[in-house]
Specification:
Shape: globular
Mean pLDDT: 94
Number of helices: 13
Low-confidence stretches: none
Length: about 400
Amino acid sequence: MKTAAGHLTYCTNIHPGENWGDHFAQLKKFIPAIKQQVSPDQPFGIGLRLANTASLELSKEAALKEFQQWLKEEDCYVFTMNGFPYGGFHNVVVKDQVHAPDWTSADRVAYTIRLFRILAALLPEGMEGGISTNPLGYKHWCNRCEEEKNSYTESATLNMLLVLEQLVRIHRSGGPLMHLDIEPEPDGMMENTSEFINWYFNDLLPAGIPFVKEKFNLEDDQAAADIIKKHIQLCYDVCHFALVYEAPQRVIERMQHHGLKIGKLQISAALKADMPADTAARSVVTDAFRKFNEPVYLHQVIAKRNDGTFIHYPDLPEALADEGNPAVTEWRSHFHVPVFLDKFEVLQSTQEDIRQVLAIQREQPFTTHMEVETYTWDVLPPALKQEMSLSVSRELNWIRTQL
């Protein structure tokens, strides 16, 4: 839905269905009810997530026309998509496979271009669109030597430029402006603002400027750089940046200082807790985290030591195995908990980061796309589960209140 601070929606990756028929059935079931509760008198925006199989099926003309007609009848529109998870995302073990295939793969390129062609057909006239994607790949798949990392990054970046070329051609031929929004997360090849900025200026622009100049017969480096900055942006997932202890004001100021754009704000919250020195009190905290230790998604933990340094655990079981570490003073765990809650028994959420970023967005909007991404409803402890449309509506209405 349109707000004074931009378009606000939620990501449909919370709804199962890896083929289009199943996912469309979920949209028909839940979106009208959600719209009625949050946007009864104005068009309702959708943050669409399509698995690879669903994208192949929706690419067919008949399916696309049927969906366009449904959007018109329901007074809905699509302005952003989630192109991070490629394959199964429900009722399977996802874990690090959420990054597969990574950006060194031709399958990732083909999938992303297909999503953009679908988005171009769905976007309302005059509206820009964005698709979030994984941050090149998963660090633990490429951690043997610096030379291997450099080769990996180079291959992934060159593949991303193939998508950039298609976005420029679509826009130059009269189609919509669309951008690929890179989403850093813990243990991704990019985890934070520094790694995103370093990649942008040390890898993307050096490879991209000559690429764009050659493809589009440009002479000027700055003109080529401006094109890249228009079409490759950041997806600022509040949960992910809170996990790496990076404050919202810092993220936004650094991006603006370097002249880089934030294409999408993903509104999400992580779990956190101070770790008491007392053994019994600490055990209460770790037992609370243990309730969230489920087998489907990655729950990276970043622990803060008393000297200000950090320990990165690739998943919650590794952190729980080190729960007695006396140097650790705080845990933050990757688990997209409901954004309207700030406490979960003895645990807290990083909701304060959401409040801060929405206050900035309210006063000086830095993006036009906002999307709630709480996808863990199915694996939450039973006491936190509600009927899906009520859960989503409550989140959207809470955010609108903040705005």
